[in-house]
């Protein structure tokens, strides 16, 4: 299924059943498991989408481009990036500050307060100053670590699940004959 049709199908379903979170998850489940591709490509696309969705500034467009370049499933990459795009990167901001600060061996409190000050007095030119880079680098590094970890977990979980379901489906077809 192409990404544009995938999105329009989900939007139509959500309009019919507004407020139904379980319907949304059932739709996502059905979309992932009914994709006609190998489990490795579907899981790879989903993991890539989650990774790129967590990193602020990246997301749906980057996941489609990279999934095409890596020959992964674009629909699952788009779905992964949309599921984790903005809302999860906001939630993981504090964790990314702590992880990035720990890797670079700096005090996370200093990075956190400097980052808040940078955001409060935001100007595009400030991003290129050396003091801003000292704040931005730990945050970006933290997001990369979190994105990679969650993307890898999603990849493994979806690969195991898809492989098991496809194997079960093949066995059911053999038994019915």
Can you put this structure into words, describing what you see?
This protein has a domain at 92-177. It is elongated and about 70 Å long. The protein is built from nine helices and no strands. Helix 7 (93-104) packs across helix 9 (130-176). By secondary structure, it is mostly helical.
What are its keywords?
177 residues; mainly alpha; 9 helices; 81% helix; 0% strand; disordered N terminus
> Strand tally, please?
0
Using only CA atoms, what is the Rg? 19 Å
Biggest β-sheet description: none
Low-confidence segments, given as residue ranges, are: 1-8
Overall mean pLDDT stands at: 78
**How many separate helices?**
9
Q: What portion of residues is helical?
A: over 70%
Roughly what fraction of the amino acids lie in strands? Answer: under 5%
Oligomer: single chain
The N- and C-terminal alpha carbons lie at a distance of: 29 Å
In sequence order, what are the helices and strands, one letter per element?
HHHHHHHHH
List the topology elements.
Elements: H1 3-16, H2 21-33, H3 39-54, H4 60-70, H5 74-84, H6 86-91, H7 93-104, H8 108-120, H9 130-176
């Amino acid at each position: 299924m192409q990404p544009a049709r995938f999105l329009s199908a989900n939007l139509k379903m959500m309009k019919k059943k507004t407020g139904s979170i379980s319907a949304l998850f059932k739709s996502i489940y059905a979309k992932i498991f009914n994709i006609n591709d190998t489990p490795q490509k579907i899981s790879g696309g989903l993991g890539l989408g989650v990774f790129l969705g967590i990193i602020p500034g990246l997301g749906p467009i980057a996941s489609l481009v990279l999934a095409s370049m890596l020959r992964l499933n674009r629909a699952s990459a788009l779905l992964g990036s949309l599921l984790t795009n903005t809302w999860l990167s906001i939630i993981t901001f504090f964790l990314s500050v702590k992880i990035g600060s720990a890797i670079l061996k700096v005090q996370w409190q200093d990075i956190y307060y400097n980052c808040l000050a940078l955001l409060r007095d935001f100007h595009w030119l400030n991003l290129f100053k050396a003091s801003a880079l000292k704040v931005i680098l730990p945050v970006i590094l933290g997001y990369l670590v979190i994105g990679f970890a969650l993307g890898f977990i999603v990849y493994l979980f979806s690969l195991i699940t898809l492989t098991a379901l496809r194997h079960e489906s093949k066995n059911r077809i053999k038994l019915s004959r």
